[in-house]
Design brief:
- The structure holds three protein chains of three kinds.
- Chain A is mainly β.
- Chain A has four helices and eleven strands.
- Chain A has a single domain, classed as CheA-289, Domain 4 (OB fold (Dihydrolipoamide Acetyltransferase, E2P), Beta Barrel), CATH 2.40.50.
- In chain A, 35% of the residues are buried.
- Chain B is built from 20 helices and 22 strands.
- In chain B, the strands form five sheets. In chain B, strands 14-18-19-17-16-15 form a six-stranded mixed β-sheet. Chain B has a five-stranded mixed β-sheet with strand order 6-8-9-11-10. In chain B, strands 20-12-13-22-21 form a five-stranded mixed β-sheet.
- Chain B is elongated.
- Chain C is of the alpha/beta class.
- Chain C has one domain: Rossmann fold.
- In chain C, helix 2 runs parallel beside helix 3.
- Chains in contact: A-B, B-C.
- Chains B and C meet through helix 1, helix 2, helix 7 and helix 8 of B and helix 1, helix 2, helix 3, helix 4 and strand 5 of C.
């Protein structure tokens, strides 16, 4: 959340768009460290279903979340196009399992619209805004909320 | 070296000196202390003053000087140390610490205590004494003063007859003449009359004397200053010729009869001379030479060595997998590689290890402040000061320890009256100890107070809705309520409580270091908190085990014994609880995969039992599917990117690059579903909740 | 030829300050952190001038001076006492021990260097 004000003050933004749970999302490119092929992870005990486990990223142990499950859209079905988006905020690095990565989206500040007033507070927290691309709507993921492991996003 | 880094060095040195000071003051409490202890305390304050003077830290200099002057009186036995003076010294040490820190951070120190303590110190000096000797900063020698431009020249007659001691002390008359020549025009004439006959000439004796005429614009003081160092080592007369002669025309006949007042007689030997060399009590030689290294460099090295260990494990594993015909020869080399890698790692880790002493010493101040604030009387006893612990652990223990020590004084100890009524020493004892035990560091904070008031704790917990009103809790479970978030024992807010820090914060801080904290209390006899910490934050010896088809690691230090049981050794109690007979007693069996909420494979069978001794559940057998080799693993925090997971202390990266979880037996057994009845599910509440 | 200085002081800060001042002025600087080390180093360093603190552990400054003056070296190199006090008592004790001169802490570079040059006769 803390980054948004500054991000939106600049005019041009680059996002990477991807799909999770059948919906289109995007993350600002500056938050993304790398995109990796899905490999098996080490499961963690006593964790909710959206926490798949941990993997070794060049010597660091990073948790992998199933983004679809984290947004309450059901577990990601296994697919050879599945990838892990490694994203970082501050000192925390995490991996997000998504169905597939689509494209790099370059948009103007003005193209980012406020999240429509929807019922679910959790959804409002986890989406910073929406961008409409042709006839689809791309949701800008609020990485801070996804990182907050003490928040149960899936309702 | 830049000026700033000298300044940094000064403050680093101050830290060490303040440690030495605190240590010395503690030693002075012993009525039979070594006199050298007072010298060491004096030197510490003196060195701080010396350095502070160089940086123009006048306030610090002034305080240190006053403190030092009182210490000097103790040192010279002009003054006896009583309890009150000892207390003043401790407070002075505290103020000195504050002043050093304030100077370092370039901020204002806390002036109120400083003024009061200073006044107290000065009262021991009898007024004028302090001021008189404090001529310190005005006495810088200044030989570089430019000549005054007053052109009026005067003529001085100087008679100079060195004693032999002048030569013995490393002086050279010619150099004195040079110095005189720098301030004027000098004519020197040697008096050869005193030369003895050649056959009685002792080359070691001083027989020469000189008569000089100096024409200079300088004052007589400037002339005398040249001879400052030889004062008492020669016969010296300096006199101004009555009529100033032109500079260019020196008097050909020196006026030998001009005798000016000059202290020429050598001073008598000081009968009260101190012994030549002060012999140190214990360390006959100075401190071991040390090398100061930027911590970042050490940490980079530690990381790299960690990677080296993983790399070594990977290579070993790959070679094993290749199943080469020459594997036997290779394995010797691999073993040597492994040992070398381990040696390097141990060496590197040792760099980060530091004694807990400075940390413990800081706590004596906390005890002092806490007892002043609560009007309870307390003294701190420390044990195991030299126990070495990772630097980061020491740093991160400071806040939790401070809090626990304050608690011990504030809540643990009774008032002096209550103590006396209970037949105890009115001065309460807070004990702080550290020790290495079975691969862990144990730190204990205990008080000899009244012990926990369990009835009140339980009432309060029920009151706050932390436990059900009808809960039946064991003593230990009640004690553990203290660690619940939002729990505070103080019925009324005293000066020290109400700081918004509870024991839950202490617990979290300790857990973040991979440690645990537990509590024991005896009614009327006191309370002990025990913190168990890993020796290092970087590596650990572990057994590789299989749990629910996953590879995991369990610390070797926690395992007492491994048992491969036969089916008949296991007995079932109730519906699904199992026990095993170990040397005559029945030990509960905990199925690790079940406790971790993982599905055990169907072919699990009897598996392997790891006998562990846990803090809360005593002897327990952990059931795993299999146990493999023993290995040193590099500890990788789960918390940095995720958070704490119950029963798991950290993770590591195995030879194949996969992650294995490191189990925490103590936490693992707490998860035992069989031992957690609904009303007793405190343990899970005590842990941070995760998504 | 450069002038060699051996400074004996238990304070790292003072040693550092001396080093910076003296090396800056072209002296060759050696230091020891207590009296025992200083006396031990003396023959190897073979300094042109010695600077010593008074209050030191193991062997104090008087001990240093007496050891150097009366020890096997029986040296007559100038020995300068570095002290925070300037009392006559201290000066006379230092002189009895065999000190050549004294410098009062806190010292300034100019006076320090001037004293050393004056006592060694070396102009660096």
């Amino acid at each position: 959340m803390l980054d948004t004000a500054e991000q939106i003050s600049d005019s041009q933004f680059e996002f990477i768009t991807f799909s999770a749970g059948g919906q289109n999302f995007c993350l600002e490119i500056t938050q993304i460290r790398e995109i990796r092929r899905w490999t098996t992870v080490t499961a963690l005990p006593h964790t909710p279903p959206d926490v798949l486990g941990v993997m070794n990223l060049r010597g660091a142990v990073i948790p992998i979340f199933d983004l679809s499950a984290r947004f309450g859209l059901g577990k990601t079905t296994e697919n050879e196009r599945n990838v892990v988006i490694v994203a970082a905020s501050g000192d925390t690095t995490i991996g997000l399992l998504v169905e597939s990565v689509s494209e790099i989206l370059s948009v103007d500040k003005d193209a980012i619209q406020e999240t429509p007033d929807i019922k679910s507070d959790m959804t409002k927290l986890s989406i910073l805004g929406v961008i409409s691309v042709e006839d689809t709507m791309v949701r800008v993921v609020n990485l801070e909320t996804v990182l907050a492991t003490d928040l149960q996003l899936a309702v | 070296m830049s000026g700033n880094s000298i300044r940094d060095t000064f403050f680093e040195e101050c830290e060490e000196l303040l440690e030495a000071l605190v240590e010395g003051l503690a030693a002075m409490e012993d009525p039979n202390h070594d006199p050298e202890v007072v010298n060491a305390v004096f030197r510490a304050v003196h060195s701080i003053k010396g350095g502070a003077g160089a940086f123009g830290l006048d306030r610090l200099v002034h305080f240190a000087h006053t403190f030092e002057t009182v210490l000097d009186k103790v040192r010279s036995r002009e003054m006896d140390v009583d309890e009150g003076l000892m207390h003043l010294f401790h407070r002075s040490g505290d103020v000195l610490t504050d002043l050093v820190e304030a100077a370092r951070d370039e901020r204002e120190p806390n002036g109120t205590t400083e003024a009061a303590v200073l006044e107290d110190l000065e009262s021991h000096l009898g007024g004028a004494d302090a001021e008189e000797e404090f001529s310190f900063d005005a006495l810088t020698l200044d030989f570089g003063t430019p000549m005054e431009i007053t052109p009026e020249e005067r003529q001085f007659e100087i008679r100079f007859k060195p004693f032999r001691t002048l030569y013995d002390n490393g002086h050279e008359p010619l150099l004195l003449f040079d110095a005189l020549a720098e301030i004027g025009t000098l004519e020197v004439k040697a008096d050869l009359d005193a030369l003895p006959a050649f056959d009685s000439f002792d080359p070691m004796d001083s027989v020469l004397s000189w008569t000089m005429t100096l024409s200079t614009a300088a004052e007589e003081d400037a002339v005398r200053e040249v001879f400052e160092f030889v004062d008492g080592l020669c016969e010296l007369t300096i006199g101004e010729a009555e009529t100033p002669a032109p500079a260019a025309q020196p008097d050909p006949e020196p006026a030998v009869d001009v005798i000016a007042e000059a202290d020429s007689a050598p001073k008598p030997a000081d009968p009260a001379a101190e012994p030549v060399a002060q012999t140190a009590s214990k360390e006959a030689r100075g401190p071991k030479p040390t090398l100061r290294v930027d911590l970042d460099r050490v940490d980079r090295l530690i990381n790299t060595v960690g990677e080296l260990i993983i790399n070594q494990a990977m290579i070993s594993q790959r070679i094993e997998e290749l199943d080469l015909p020459t594997a036997a020869q290779l394995s010797n080399e691999l073993e040597a590689y492994k040992l070398l890698a381990r040696d390097i790692q141990e060496g590197v880790m040792a760099i980060r290890a530091q004694p807990v002493k400075p940390l413990f010493q800081r706590m004596s101040r906390i005890v002092r402040e806490a007892s002043d604030a609560t009007s309870k009387q307390a003294r701190l006893v420390t044990m195991g000061d030299s126990t070495e612990v990772d630097k980061t652990v020491i740093e991160r223990l400071s806040d939790p320890l401070t809090h626990m020590i304050r608690n011990a004084v504030d809540h643990g100890l009774e008032t002096p009256e209550q103590r006396e009524a209970a037949g105890k020493d009115p001065v309460g004892k807070i004990k702080l100890s550290a020790a290495h035990r079975s691969g862990s560091v144990f730190i204990e904070i205990s008080d000899d107070g009244a012990g926990l008031d369990r009835k009140r704790i339980l009432e309060k917990a029920i009151d706050k809705g932390l436990v059900a009103a009808d809960a039946e809790l064991t003593d230990q479970e009640i004690d553990n309520l203290l660690f619940l978030p939002g729990f505070s024992t103080a019925g009324s807010v005293s000066n020290l409580s109400g700081r918004g820090v509870g024991m839950d914060v202490v617990k979290n801080a300790v857990q973040a270091l991979g440690g645990r904290v537990s509590i024991t209390s005896t009614h009327g006899a006191g309370t002990t908190f025990t913190i168990v910490l890993p020796l290092t934050l970087a590596v650990m010896d572990g057994f590789i085990i299989s749990v629910a088809d996953q590879t995991m690691v369990i610390p070797i230090a926690s395992i007492l014994e491994t048992i491969r049981p036969n089916a008949k050794d296991l007995h079932t109690i109730g519906t699904d609880s199992q026990v095993i007979r170990v040397r005559g007693s029945y030990v509960p069996v905990v199925n690790v995969s079940e406790n971790l909420g993982l599905v055990p494979p169907e072919r699990s069978g009897v598996g392997v039992l790891l006998l562990v001794s846990t803090e809360t559940h005593g002897l327990t057998a952990l059931k795993v599917e299999d146990i493999h080799d023993q290995r040193q693993v590099v500890i990788k925090s789960l918390e940095s990117n995720y958070g704490a997971i119950q029963g798991v202390s950290a993770a590591t990266i195995l030879g194949d690059g996969k992650i294995a979880l490191i189990l925490d037996p103590d936490e693992l057994v707490k998860l035992d579903p069989a031992s957690v009845s609904p009303s007793l599910s405190l343990d899970t509440r005590m842990e941070p909740q995760h998504a | 030829m450069t002038t060699k200085v051996l400074a004996i002081d238990d304070s790292r800060t003072i040693r550092n300050l001396l080093r910076v001042s003296l090396e800056g002025a072209g002296f060759e600087f050696h230091s020891a952190c207590d009296g025992v080390e200083g006396v031990e180093m003396f023959p190897d360093v073979d300094p042109d001038v010695v600077i010593t603190d008074i209050n030191m552990p193991n062997m104090d400054g008087y001990g240093v001076i007496e050891s150097l003056r009366n020890g096997p070296d029986r040296t007559s190199v100038p020995i300068v006492v570095l002290t925070t006090e300037s009392s006559d008592k201290l000066k006379s004790r230092a002189r009895e021990a065999g000190a050549t001169g004294w410098i009062v802490k806190p010292f300034d570079d100019a006076s320090l260097i001037s004293v050393l040059k004056r006592l060694t006769g070396h102009v660096s």
